[in-house]
Amino acid sequence: MQALVHGKLDEAGLNPAERALLDYVSKVTEAAYRTTEKDVQTLRDHGWTEPQIAEAVYITAMFAFFNRVADAFGIPPQNYLEMNAVTK
Asked: CA torsion sign, 13 to 17 to 18 to 20?
């Protein structure tokens, strides 16, 4: 869990399907307009279904939306991970 919290995907013990999904949502987060049909096919090839891929995109988009709204209103980070002792 610590590796994921700190963004160290290579150390997180992810299986290839999980890693492919996280790589995809990273791309969606950073530059959604650069995603391609090939990216989605890679997820299908790893066993992800259309509803699962769509859900991953929706969740990623919602996080981005809420983060931008919070930033726009100057809401400080809530430190949820620290409050739940995930990073300790």
From this structure: positive
Q: Could you report how far apart the first and last alpha carbons of the chain are, in Å?
A: 11
Please name which of 1, 46, 2 lies closest in space to residue 24, comparing C-alpha atoms: 46
What SS3 class is residue 2? helix
pTM value is 0.81
| DSSP per residue, 7-28 | T-GGGTT--HHHHHHHHHHHHH
Q: Is the dihedral of CA 72, 73, 77, 78 positive or negative?
A: negative
For the domain spanning 16-77, the CATH number is 1.20.1290.10
Residue-wise pLDDT for 40-67, tens only, equals 999 999 999 999 999 999 999 999 999 9
Task: Please tell me the distance from the alpha carbon of residue 13 to that of residue 16, in angstroms, as a whole number.
Answer: 10
